[in-house]
Amino acid sequence: GMGGNLNDIFGELFQMGGMRRGHKGRQRAAHAEPVHGRDITTDVTIDFLEAIHGASRQVRLHREGGGETLTVKIPPGVENGSKVRIAGKGEQGQHGGLSGDLYLQVHVNPHPLFWREDSNIFCNVPITIYEAVLGANVDVPTLDGTAKMKIPAATSSGQKFRLKGKGAPILGKKGTTGDQYVIVQIVPPKKIDSETEEWMREWAQKHPYNPRES
Fold first, then answer.
1. CA-to-CA distance for 151 and 182, rounded, in angstroms?
2. SS3 string of 109-149?
3. How far apart are CA 129 and CA 188, in angstroms?
4. Residue in 61, 62, 78 with CA at minimum distance from that of residue 70
5. What is the DSSP pairing of strand 180-186 with strand 160-163?
6. How much is the average pLDDT of 34-40?
7. Is residue 123 within 8 Å of residue 66, measured between CB atoms?
8. Is the pLDDT of residue 23 over 80?
């Protein structure tokens, strides 16, 4: 009879101890520290004009909890190598922690005509000898089409002209843009007839000058 009672008593004690250990384990789980989710970085390639005007892209993310396809917006004015942050689209946090962020690593394809330095846009524009000597109004390409630009008389090849406000948008400064710089290149005619050649020789003799002398 005593042995049976002892077995019952020890059994109840072991059960109570197990209950106490389980209760403490649940308490530790309930009070676990929040863990912030990991950030994710993915590459995105866009064209030059998309970087200027902004664009949308679909990106496929591979998270620990599964994949997801997102449509993301790339703001106007991003540069090659820029990082665009999409808040809360990284790995999911644990124990109530915040999710990480998604970062788009932007790669911009070069343009055949324009190039960029910060928010300023540059391009080369060919002009004739006559336009350089006499001056002219010429059409030049811009990011939004064409614009009229005045070439003053006696313009040199390589001279640079500014088109104010025709550059790229400045990130973080809504409504503000850089400038465009047009670099003119004097292009002589590929062929001239004998009459024109003779006229130029006479002109050179009557109006000699040496641009290599200061």
1. 11
2. CCCCCCEEECCEEEEEEEECHHHHHHCEEEEEEECCEEEEE
3. 6
4. 61
5. antiparallel
6. 85
7. no
8. no
For the entire predicted model, the pTM comes to 0.76
Count Cβ atoms below 10 Å from residue 86 Cβ, excluding itself: 17
Look-up: residue for tokens 């590459």? 43
What SS3 class is residue 32?
coil
**b vs e for 97-136, b when ≥16 Cβ sit within 10 Å of the residue's Cβ?**
eebbbbbbebebeebeebebeebbbbbebebeeebbeeeb
| Cα–Cα distance, 67 to 63 (Å, whole number) | 6
The Cα–Cα gap between 32 and 53 comes to 46
Cα–Cα distance measured from residue 110 to residue 80, given in angstroms and rounded to the nearest whole number? 9
Burial of 202 from C-beta contacts in 10 A (0-12 / 13-18 / 19+): exposed
Written as one string, the DSSP assignment of 81-111 is T-EEEETT-SSPPBTTPPP--EEEEEEEPPP
Other CB atoms within 10 Å distance of the CB of residue 29: 9
**What is the distance, to the nearest Å, from the Cα of residue 206 to the centroid of all Cα atoms in its chain?**
55
Comparison of pLDDT for 168 and 25, the residue scoring more: 168
